[in-house]
Each structure stands twice: as structure tokens, then as C-alpha cells.
Amino acid sequence: MHPIFEALLSQAKGQSRLRVAVAHPCDAVTMESVAAAFQAGLIEPILVGPEAKIRIAADEAGLSALEWPIINTPHSHASADAAVELVRAGKADALMKGSLHTDELMSAVVDPLHGLRAERRISHCYVMATKGHSEPLIVTDAAINIAPDLHVKADIVQNAIDLAHAIGVTEVRVALLSATETINPAIQSTLDAAALCKMADRGQITGALLDGPLALDNAIDMGAVTQKHIRSTVAGRANVLVVPDLVAGNILAKTLSFMAHAEAAGIVVGARVPIILTSRADSLESRIVSCAIAVHLAKIPVLKGVVKG
Question: Rounded CA gap, 256 and 119, in Å?
């Protein structure tokens, strides 16, 4: 495990366990993740789904007996609804995705009457540990918002800043990515980046240094910054990368993971509680670190705000 992830895990182990409603944990991968996070002292799971399928999945994961409560539901949609209701009732501190589609879980989360929306737009962050770096790199949004407008991007940026502070980043440096470092009216992401920087100047976005538009090389490589004569407190040393849209974010995150061999842990932010959103392709270590990040994220006061609806 990368030292960055080791540190996040170690710090989370010293805090109170999160009561986590696990939505539809009906496969061995989810049950393995739940057991590992429990053994690491991170979570107290509440299993929400068809009881018979949960027990079969537990057997497949090599769990001889289940010591956690099970909320029996007939199918995956009901599992998502019941897991969300546990949070609304104050019986769970976080959600975890099991073997249901992300859309099913998020539909329950964003339901205007019975969901978990807070004041901001919900967004996804990858917390990445990359070779040669001593601090986490956050990539957002690569999983929730397909084509965010300026208003949504402002929430995405603030969510990522709050997450960065929660996991111990002392100076948050946000790069607003595009294809160029200059403003081009034909490229909407450059206009959005400029507006977001001015929003930060006016106190509408707080807690970080922002710069953009920046191409990826200008955001993370000081050589490129020097060559292009860019004067910036963020360029070349960004620790939060805000992408123009979901497609760009997904490609960037997967390129870092599969070609640069970065380690990644995913979390959904901006809801009333942290949402642990993992993939079957994730390593067990990454899934455990996602739970550790949820423990850190649960400390953020904004998450304790009034639920819409």
C-alpha cells in the first residue's frame, strides 16, 4: 500500500467507527470489503438486502457467521431505499454501495422527498496516491455529473476542497483543467475556469488556491510551467484536478490507475453523509481506504446540515 494510503488508514483507525448502511451486499466482493473494513476498525456495518442472498455471498467470501444486523428487502431498489432511510432516521452515518447499479443507489440518494441531498450538488472524488508524490491527488468529478455547468462546477470544487481538508491536506491547490492555459471563448471549460477563479476571489469558493484554465501538464509539471512562463501559486503543483466533464475525468483517473499505476479510492461527497462508492475492479486495499476516507469525511460540518425534502 502506498504510504499516503497507509497514513489515511492509520489516522482513521484512531477515530470512532462509522455505522454504515451497506446497500445490497449480495456478492462476495462486497462482503469481503465489509469484513475487511470492520476488522480494520473503520465501520459497523448494517447489511441491507435480501437476507438469503446476503448469506450466500457471505459464504462465498469465506465468512462462517454474520455478526452484523441484516435488514431484509426484496430487491436492489428496495435495498437502496431502505439504506437511505436508515441514514434519515439517524441509524447510520454513511452509505456503501453493494452489488447494485450506481444509478439505483444514487436515485435513492437524490430523491427530492426521501433522499439525502444537502445544499450542494453531489459529486464524486477519486483520492489518488501517485508515485513520487507525498500528498494525495484528488480528481473530480469522474462518476456522477456528466456535463456540469458553472453552478455545478462550483459545488464540485467546494466539495473537493472540503474533502482535501478532511484528509489532512494543509494547502489545497485546485487546477481547473482544460486543453489550454489561455481563455478561448470557443472552449467553454476555459470560460468556466476563469469564472470559478473569480468566484474564489469574491469568497464564493473558499479554503483553497484556484487557478485555471490549465492544461494537465501545466497543472502538475513545473517544467511545463517554466517553459510557458506561467506565473501561478497552483500551476505545476496542483493537488486537486477539476475536469471539464465526466468523460475527461473517467479517462484521466483510469489512465493514472492503469498506466501510471496510481492507487485510487473513490468517495461521493456533497450528500448528508459520505457515500462509499467502490468498483469490483478496485483492489481490496483501495476499498478499505475508501472506508477510511469516509471516516475522515464524516467530520465535515457541512455534511450535518439539513436534508432537502
Answer: 31
Residue 36 banded pLDDT, cuts 50, 70, 90: very high
- Give the sign of the dihedral formed by CA 141, CA 257, CA 33, CA 9: negative
pLDDT band at residue 301 using 50, 70 and 90 as cut-offs: low
Name the burial class of residue 245, with classes exposed (0-12), middle (13-18) and buried (19+) by CB atoms within 10 angstroms of its CB. middle
> Of 54, 64, 67, which is closest to residue 26 (Cα–Cα)?
54
Q: Kindly state the cell numbers that stand for 60.
A: 462465498
Question: Which three cell numbers, joined as nine digits, stand for 189?
Answer: 471549460
Domains of the chain from N-terminus onward = 1-117+272-309 (3.40.50.10950), 119-270 (3.40.718.10)
pLDDT value of residue 309: 37
> What DSSP string describes the chain?
--HHHHHHHHHHHTSPPEEEEEE---SHHHHHHHHHHHHTT-EEEEEEE-HHHHHHHHHHTT-S---S-EEE-SSHHHHHHHHHHHHHTTS-SEEEE-SS-HHHHHHHHS-TTTS-B-SSPPEEEEEEE-TT-SS-EEEE-SSS-SS--HHHHHHHHHHHHHHHHHTT-SS-EEEEE-S-SS--TT-HHHHHHHHHHHHHHTTSS-SSEEEEEE-HHHHH-HHHHHHTT---SSTT--SEEE-SSHHHHHHHHHHHHHTS--EEEEEEESBSS-EE---TTS-HHHHHHHHHHHHHHTT-GGGGSPPP-
Phi-psi sector, 175: left (phi>0), alpha (psi -120 to 50), beta? beta
Put residue 131 in one of left, alpha, beta given phi > 0 → left and psi -120 to 50 → alpha.
Answer: beta
Amino acid identity of residue 308, one-letter, is K
| Per-residue confidence (pLDDT) for residue 204, from 0 to 100 | 96
Establish whether the linkage from the previous residue to 141 is cis, with ω within 30° of 0.
yes
